[in-house]
Design brief:
By secondary structure, this protein is an all-alpha fold. About 75% of the residues lie in helices and about 0% in strands. The longest helix has about 30 residues. The protein starts with a helix and ends with a helix.
């Protein structure tokens, strides 16, 4: 495997882990949340530098359904990331306290919350779009996986995605995405691992949706 490919994988894993930790917010403390946000933004820039070849081709070539889907996800993630950073800068009480931008905190809080939860869903969909490629890499490393084991793994993934529907509703993620709730509720007596498990399940749900949606569009393209 090429070094650039390994670096891309490491950056993407880092982004995914940081994304999950950022969703814990007050459970890990405001200062840690801010530093993680800065770290994620730095990795996000590195991710785009490493994938600059794709960015250069945005206005080139024919746009198929699958390419439109990919581009919409990328633009959506970019918008939510920028909005999250805007809100984070205004609301910062620790890492960026030295900056003079302090006006409009109420609006910044709403922007930060909506973009954080919408960004979580969009990034999960984006991961699902590339899941086929990641599975292909895994197959090259592991070589051959027995058919029965493949179906077991698919069953486990489907079960986790199914639980993700419950976790999505229980954690009121949709309410935060559309600002139906003005504040995020955290149960400080709940073990952090349970909170993360629910968000991993929700991430799996949207990866699962995006993977099969993308697979369906590829099938349509292949047979037209």
């Amino acid at each position: 495997m090429k070094q650039i490919t390994i670096l891309k994988i490491v950056v993407d894993i880092g982004l995914t882990v940081m994304l999950l930790l950022l969703m814990t917010y007050e459970l890990i403390g405001e200062a840690a949340h801010e530093w993680l946000g800065i770290g994620m933004f730095a990795l996000f820039i590195i991710h785009h530098i490493l994938n600059r070849k794709w960015s250069r081709c945005v206005f080139k070539g024919k746009y198929t359904l699958i390419r439109i889907w990919q581009t919409v996800l990328v633009i959506g993630v970019l918008i939510t990331m920028v909005d999250s950073m805007y809100g984070g800068v205004i609301l910062s009480k620790h890492a960026l306290l030295f900056l003079p931008f302090k006006g409009g905190r109420a609006f910044a809080r709403e922007i930060h919350m909506v973009s954080a939860y919408c960004g979580f869903v969009l990034m999960s969909l984006h991961l699902g779009f590339h899941l086929g490629m990641m599975m292909g890499m895994a197959r090259r490393i592991v070589k051959e996986i027995p058919t029965a084991r493949k179906w077991v793994l698919r069953g486990i993934a489907t079960f986790i995605a199914g639980y993700g529907v419950y976790a999505f509703i229980r954690r009121e993620i949709g309410h935060y995405m559309f600002l139906q709730n003005q504040y995020v509720f955290f149960d400080f007596e709940e073990p952090l691992i349970f909170f993360l498990a629910d968000y991993i399940a929700v991430m799996t749900l949207f990866m699962w949706i995006s993977y099969y949606f993308s697979k369906g569009m590829r099938y349509i393209k292949k047979n037209n």
